[in-house]
Amino acid sequence: MGLGYGLSFLAGVLTPAHLERVLDGAWLASPLAGHPGWSFQGALAAPFLIAILCSTLKSVGDLTTCQKINDADWKRPDLKRIGNGIMANSFGVISAGLLGGMGQSASSANVGLSVATGATSRVIAYAIGGLLFVLAFCPKLATVFAIMPAPVMGATLIFALSFMVVAGIQIIMSRMLDARKTFVVGIAMIVGIGVDVAPEIFHTFPHWLRPVFHSSLSAATLLAILLNLVFRLGIASKAGVELAPGPDTSEHVFAFMQRQGGLWGARKEVIDKAARRRMNSWRRCANMN
To answer: 139, 188, 200, 221: least CB-packed within 10 angstroms?
Structure first.
């Protein structure tokens, strides 16, 4: 980032006017001096609920990624710890609202940076928290980041989010995907990208539906939830198969287990292990008979 600032200045992207903003900034000031006051608008309740849902699910993904990179034997999300993380995030949002600040949320880019560097110690979090506290009361230092050139910002995000995207794909692929789950993931991603690439497509939607498609995050999240609910219809929690002695019995066992593993979204190693156990049990029964 420091090199990017220097190159931006030489290229004329970072101008002397930007530097003057830093020089004019105060060394010490209270961030609570200009409290905007409180208000409530009922018309914003629905969009806020949608934003809360999307932000919460995004935080679940961030916290799941944090668990994965801190546990070499990670197999499934620890929902209790994720719940604690969501609760802590909620306290941050409430505090920001009471103090007149902006809503807070877990940073996916920072999680991606942790994946890239392998640095996940809590000591770093404490140090960054202290730095943010200093920046809140020191406008001059905060302005240094406020004038960050767009190319520097873009390069930083590309670096961090590349690791985050790959980590997210690894989590998705840790479970078996059948055609239904493939459609859930694929359609949600396509629509989310479409909102950013071609937003005019969604201008023809009903007026009450347009707020959902103002953000790629909200559109992809809600679509994934709805599609997941729809595609879960007809999936039984229990399933069985009748086997008859024959040379292709093992193929029937593995085909059945693969099909059900995809429907249930199970881990592949679990299904393979279960298939081997079922096959061995059937062979023992066949030999006894």
So the answer is: 200
Dihedral sign for Cα atoms in the order 26, 30, 34, 36: positive
Which contacts of 113-116 are long-range, i.e. CB under 8 A and separated by 24 or more positions? 113/159, 113/160, 113/163, 114/66, 114/69, 115/65, 115/69, 115/163, 115/164, 115/166, 115/167, 116/159, 116/160, 116/162, 116/163
Distance CA 55, CA 132 (A): 22
Which residues lie below 8 Å from residue 243, measured CB to CB, with a gap of 6+?
Answer: 249, 252, 253, 282
Report d(CA 235, CA 260) in Å as an integer: 9
Report pLDDT digits (tens) over 228-274: 888 877 676 677 767 666 666 667 666 777 776 776 676 776 667 76
Give the three-state DSSP class for 138: coil
Distances (CA, A) of 249 to 106, 252, 257, 261: 50, 5, 13, 18
Q: Which residue has the tokens 């298939």?
A: 275
Taking the whole predicted model, whether its pTM rises above 0.85 is answered as no
**Where does the chain have alpha helices with state H?**
2-10, 16-24, 45-70, 79-99, 108-117, 122-137, 139-146, 150-173, 179-197, 216-231, 249-264, 268-288
Rounded Cα gap, residues 39 and 259, in angstroms: 53
Asked whether the predicted pLDDT for residue 201 surpasses 60, the reply is yes
Residue whose C-alpha is closest to residue 157's, from 118, 192, 113, 119: 113
Q: At residue 289, does pLDDT exceed 60?
A: no
